[in-house]
Amino acid sequence: MKKKYILLTFIVLISITSCQKASINGDLDGMWQLMKIEKKDKPAEVPVQLYYCIQLHMVQLQGAATCHGTFSHKGDSIYLVIRSSNKKAVAAYGMNDTIQSFGIENISSEKMTLNSSSARLQFRKF
């Protein structure tokens, strides 16, 4: 009986831990709240409840409109491709278009700053 209990416990533990995906993007993975958008030649905007959710090779923009897409991360830059939306919807998130490149100015486990040709975005880990 004791062997059956140990075997059952072992199987449950293996099945729970085997379903989780490991982080491949380091500090970039997670849910980031957009705290400030600084556009060139315009006053800074403080958005209300806008989020970038990043995991594996997927990105989801949540808030004003929910948008889904993919991204690639290499060195100090990321490249977003939002296929489920349009320019107007992604503009609220500090993007010019549904395809956008950002340079990573700084990133830690708590804060991140991204730069594009037209805006500087500041985030906090949520």
- C-alpha Rg (nearest Å): 19 Å
CATH class: Mainly Beta
Strand order of the largest sheet: 1-2-3-4-5-6-7-8
CATH architecture: Beta Barrel
CATH topology: Lipocalin
Distance between the termini: 46 Å
Please work out how many helical segments DSSP would assign. 2
Number of strands: 8
Fraction of residues in H or I helices: 10-25%
Question: If you average the pLDDT, what whole number results?
Answer: 88
Which class best fits the helix and strand makeup?
alpha+beta
Order of helices and strands: HEEEEEHEEE
* Beta-strand content estimate: 35-45%
Shape: elongated
Number of domains: 1
Low-confidence stretches: none
InterPro entries: Lipocalin-like (IPR024311)
Organism: Bacteroides luti
Domain Lipocalin-like: 16-126
Pfam families: Lipocalin_8
Describe what is shown at a glance.
InterPro entries: Lipocalin-like (IPR024311). The protein is of the alpha+beta class.
Structural overview:
Keywords: Signal. This is Lipocalin-like domain-containing protein. It is a single chain. The chain starts with a helix and ends with a strand. The protein has an 8-stranded antiparallel barrel. Helices cover 17% and strands 44% of the residues. The relative contact order is 0.18.
